[in-house]
Structures are given as structure tokens and as C-alpha cells.
Amino acid sequence: MASDLRLVLIISFVSVLVFSTSSSSLPRFPRQNRARIQLFGGDRNSYQYQTKYFSQQLDHFSFADLPKFSQRYLINSDHWSGASELGPIFLYCGNEGDIEWFATNSGFIWEIAPKFGALLVFPEHRYYGESMPYGSRDEAYKNATTLSYLTTEQALADFAVFVTDLKRNLSAEASPVVLFGGSYGGMLAAWMRLKYPHIAIGALASSAPILQFEDIVPPQTFYDIVSNDFKRESSSCFNTIKNSWDAIIAEGQKENGLQQLSKTFHFCRALNSTDDLSDWLDSAYSYLAMVDYPYPADFMMPLPGHPIKEVCRKIDGASSDASILERIYAGVSVYYNYTGKVGCFELDDDPHGLDGWNWQACTEMVMPMSSSQENSMFTAYDFNYSSYKEYCWNTFGVIPRPRWVTTELGGHDIETALKSFGSNIIFSNGLLDPWSGGSVLKNLSSTIVALVTEEGGHHLDLRPSTPEDPKWLVEQREAEIGLIQGWIRTYRLEKEAQFPLLKRSW
């Protein structure tokens, strides 16, 4: 089952929950590990916001008398031009994790707020961070019954109810709402624009793999892109990684082989199986492809600019007598220990192995993945739904619904569908990001636009600007600003035509 379920520990942005690198891992967006990763990238104090709570319905789609829960949200009104000026509301669709981490890693939104006179709000996704139904995480995650309200439909309804109530309380019913999101949050932003077009006038969906379902894109796409990112830096590096999997198995089959592997890779505790090591390496390579940014960053880990180049430099530059596994260790240390401060590595800092994304992946967020023999540097394997279903049943007592997302939110023949009823969505992607293969990479209409950059990583455009930003990134953000300005301008002109007294300085 390990090969069937070794689907990359994926977001988006993503969570401050600890992650497990066990062989039963399901596909998810980048997961923060408290023990190894700084909780907040950059200077947390550089972003000022109030933390508030909204009383939210547990189930938006029934009238059962269920307990409500407190949904946390962050808000900043420093630059808001106000309701009388139809000041826009920029809403970031919270991903599967602590909302403070998303807010402090979404510098682009903060930077453009003064230009737009925008109110910023960051509502947290239910069942993550502090937004726990039933009063606590233990109760919320207790079983399949309590987890049953953790769905994308409920989360989208949360955002819709929240912002509608917020606007009413601010007497800002006429203020336009623009949605933002990266990775899973980008998927939510795009889906919310389509599902609630009367709530928001447009959405910037960065690195949003809304097509990574069923057979819409080939299942090997993700791992092929990861592999290509390494191969473009060094074919010998690519081949070393490709050959390392057999070397790991061969070493593990020797007497005391697992102990030797644990020593080679500096683990704090002895390995239980070679699968644990393979998954640990798989995660590192996948994350490296996602955050192969052109400048130093600490989004997932403290890393240099162009980190894959540095990994391959370490692998290729090892001494001539270094074994293949010693070369791999030298390379992967760039990801797990670039600062040199980690004495030994923990494989699994989540003793329960249970978090919200695993539930979501076992219910509706079924993203098939495989690894090809020809193009991938990973061990070849095919997606096996039977094994996937077995894992989900054994873990949660649920059977996945792999077709539900496309039934509820679409995906097949998306060009035809969105031409008919969609508008004002930006799908931004960098082709170094392995999740770009499951996103929209071409314009679907004059108002559903794809901004694609060859050198871009995972939702790089949403990150804070830096002096090291390449010209193409600056131009990408300028294009996004221009499109959003157009949405707001059109909205205001339409409002002015309907209500002449609303006319102001715009």
C-alpha cells in the first residue's frame, strides 16, 4: 500500500499543523512542522491586524439545531477608504491551517491595500487553527460524525455568510469583495467566485489545482514536473536520485541495514522501514520543486535562492568516494538543515497521524497521482483506488467520493463551462510548481485569465515583494493589479449608473 498512497505531502500555503511522513500519507498542500519550521515567515509584527471571532453555523445546509462555533478572522482597516467610497474588501480564503500563517505570508495583498483603499480580512477555515467546532480539536476530530462538517461546501458557505454579515455591520453592503487564495485557498477563491458570484466580484486564484481530480489531467503530472525541475538543473543529479531508491531498499535488507540508514541520514530514532526514509525524501523533493524561488525564502524551510540548484550542487559535488546515499544526504540536507542548526531529524512529529486534510482527502478531495517509469525520478507506481479506499475506511470509516468535487464544482470541459457562466478569475501559475499541472494554464475567456510564468514557484506572486524580485515577477503582479482595478472600476461604474448619488472620487 505504501507505493499506492505515497502521494506527496502537498497548499498551498499551508498549515501550521504538524505533518506525518508515513506511508499512508494522502495528497495535501504544504504542511508546516512545528518542530522543524519557523511558525511565521518574515517579521510577524510587520503586519498589524485585529483578531476577532464570528459565530458560525456548523451546518449551512440543514435546519437542525446544531451548536455554532467561533470562526476566527483577522482584519485590518488601516487603508480602507470606507463604505461611502465603495472601498473594496479583500478577502483571503483561509486554507487548511492557522490563518495567521497565511496572513503573514500574503504580503502582496498587504502591499496593494493602500493603492486600492481596501479593507483586509482573513477568515480561518473551519476545523483548522482556532476555528474548531465542538469547542476543541479533540472533540472536532473525534470521529467521522464530528468531522462530517469539514467540507469545501461548508467552508465556502462560511466565507459567504461571514463577509455578508461583515458588510452589513459596516453598512458597506455596496462595497465590492475581491477574493484571494493560494493553493487550496486558491481553489476555494475560484470556486467561491463561481458558486457565489453575487458575493464577490472577482478572484485571484494562485497555484490552484482545480483540475487535479479524476482523469482531467494525467495522474503522473505532479511527479513529472518535480522530476523535470531537477533534470533541468543536472541530469546526473536526476539520475542519482532515480537510482537512490533501489540503493535504499538494498541497504535496508542488509543485517542492521535500517540502523545504518538511520545513521547515514542522521535520524534521531532508528527507522522502522525503508518506506519511512523514501517518504521523507519524496516530501523534500516535492517541496523543493514547489518553493524553487529565485531568492532566499523561509516559507517552508529556510532555503537559499534556487534551492534545487543548490541541492544538485551538493549531490554532484560530493567527494568521489561518497556513496550514492551519502550524496543524497548531502543534497537533502539543503532542505531539512540549510541553517546547519538541526542535530538530528525526526520522521514523524504527529503521534496521532490525524489531521483535517487527511479527512478531506479521504472524502471529497481525491487527487489521483502516479509516478511514471519514463519521466519520473521517483519509484514508478500507479494510483490504486482500491488501496486508497481501504486506507480511508481503516482510518476514518468513510469511503471517498472521487467524483463529488467535479459534480459539485466542475472541472471537466472547464473551458466550455466557464465561458458560459464564469468571469473575473485570475489563475496564476509558475511552471516550476508541480501543482501547476492541475491548474488552468490558458485564458478561458476575456475575463477568465491565466497568468503563467516559466520560472515561477508555488503562489510566488502572493508572497511579499523583495528587492531580488525578477522582472517577470514584478510584471506578473502589475498585470494582476491592473485586472483587479478593472473589475472594481467596472463595478463602480455600474453602481453609479444605478445610483447616481453614489458617485464619488473614483
Report a brief summary of the structure.
The chain has helices at residues 2-5, 99-104, 107-116, 137-140, 144-147, 152-169, 184-195, 221-233, 235-252, 257-264, 274-290, 307-316, 324-336, 356-363, 385-396, 404-409, 414-421, 471-498; strands at 50-56, 69-76, 89-92, 119-123, 177-182, 202-206, 425-430, 448-453. The chain has 506 residues and is an alpha/beta fold. An eight-stranded mixed beta sheet has the order 1-2-4-3-5-6-7-8, sandwiched between helices.
Strand/helix succession:
HEEEHHEHHHEHEHHHHHHHHHHEEH
Total of helices: 18
- Low-confidence parts, pLDDT < 50 over ≥5 residues? 1-25, 27-44, 349-354
β-strand amount: 5-15%
Mean pLDDT over all positions: 89
Biggest beta sheet summary:
8 strands, mixed
Which outline best applies? globular
Distance between the termini: 59 Å
| Helical fraction | 25-40%
> What would you call the structural class?
alpha/beta
The Cα radius of gyration reads 23 Å
Query: How many β-strand stretches?
Result: 8
Oligomer: single chain
Strand order of the largest sheet: 1-2-4-3-5-6-7-8
